[in-house]
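Exercise 3.2. Students should predict the tertiary structure of the chain below and write it as structure tokens, then compare their answer with the key that follows.

Predict this chain's 3D structure.
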Amino acid sequence: FLSAQGPSLSIPTHTPRRPPFNSASDAFQLHPDVQTLVWNDPKAENVSKVAWARWRDNPDSSDAEARAIEDLTACLAKRPPMRAKDQAETHARLGAVYAKRKEYQSAEKHLGASCAKAPDNHHAWLQLGELYRETNRDEMAMRAFTKCAEIDERCGGAYRAMAQMFEKHGQTSRAMAMYDKMDPNDPRVLKRKDEILLKCALRLQRAFRGHKARKQNAFKGGGARQVARNYGERAPLRDPDGDKARSIQHWSPYDRVGVVN
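Answer key:
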């Protein structure tokens, strides 16, 4: 039937199929010359995406940083303004660029604006927390990381940052609680937890040996009541089988149940 209508069309199976562009940044990655087309687009959010993608391709270049700041600032000044979500994304991008340049005051300004315009954007809260942490404002950083974890319970970056800050301040148990909330199969998490547990075990071992040495010295030079008062143990003063006083060195916990050494 088909041959009677004309020659059949055959589609070669080896023709590569590319996924559709999801955003201007994806298009820029595949075709760098598309930036000319997007730059003429009246939508400032597309320009913001291209400027961000261009900077991420070369983040160590000072020229790229200056151009990204210029382009992203122009996007925020464009009228009519972008949607609040797009403005928040652009502020976060500007904050990241300024933070890379260690211009923390400008970075904090834009990251704070991003969190204000999109309070549910956990990436902005994570970046803001890292900024506070970098500038030694641990309490504010902890609040930002906590907010990030509340928005996205799977944000491992926030848990890792909080765990490191707890370790810094000597709060090992809280640090372990943060590591427990991360991916249990992550080798970095497992390694760090092993290091913490080993450090705690060595510290406990040293404390136990010191306690044991002090206790032995107390047995040699102190009275039974003093040992009981300092170490919370009830040492018998008399042999339960007779009136002869027992030496404190021969005391055993079994004496409590009537067993004599």
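Discussion points: Residues 187-221 form the longest helix (35 residues). The two ends are 108 Å apart (CA to CA).
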